[in-house]
Amino acid sequence: MPARVGAGGSGRASAEASHAPVSIVFADMDDTFLARDKTVPAGNLALLDRMGEKGVPFVPCTGRVWSAVARRVLGHAATRYVVASDGAVVMDVRDAGNPRRLHLSALGRERALALYERMRELPVTFDAFWDGKIYVSRRRFELMRGFDIPPYDRDMYLRYRTPMDMTTPQLLESLPNVERLTIFTGTDDVRARAIEAVAADSTLHYTYSSARNLEVMDKGTSKGAAVRWLCDYLGIPRTQSVGFGDSPNDLTMLAAVGDGVAMANAYPEAKAAATHVAPWTCDESAVAHYLGPLL
Known about the structure:
single chain; alpha/beta; Rossmann fold; Hypothetical Protein, Haloacid Dehalogenase-like Hydrolase, Chain: A, domain 2; 2 domains; six-stranded mixed beta sheet; 13 helices; 21% strand; HAD-SF_hydro_IIB; phosphatase activity; HAD-like_sf; magnesium ion binding
């Protein structure tokens, strides 16, 4: 069972004293580092300032494309790298004018096209992630307006997608590559059929961060695999890493770091996978409350 970290007391002090040095921090964005309304809580912004002063790298570890990381986080001096697209991409963002892709684990166009053929008749979105943008055919983009999705999530979807006036096969053929896919479904029945279509290709797997989406990628791609790659690349022992998450797409990241911390608002699966469960929610600057005493 994961330990549940209290807000204070001798148990907390003992945990701080025995914790490994923190040399790098990974954090999911939505419902973890960001509040549920997609804003950055003041406590977490102050934490970034402190990490920048101490030279501890902060790494957003997100299902989003790297360019969709909240501007106040992406542009902060503490944010040196981004694990994006559920681990399909690792970016070096230290030079804002010249971000560099360090690592790519792509699903690719061929398998994306084959999966689309298995889903062609389903009323779902089919969003292709590539090079900092998310592309979707306009017809499938408009489906999102009718799905029963929390307003903040729908607004984010509409803001960061690039609708294209072409069919999905034409869109996929026009891209140099595909990092991963997101598929939003409107009903449980359609979701189950979409999962069957993904499972038909054993080289793919899916995860999710809401009850209505599937995040589809190469079988070897995950946030955890990208965390391991970046720690090795930087020469940082993973025992000196801390990671924060809330959703099933964070499970591999929570397992890969030295100290995996789930939010109080996390899915049960994330709490079960974590080393510790914080007593604070994402709306209460949980990352700052937990990490601050360890820096």
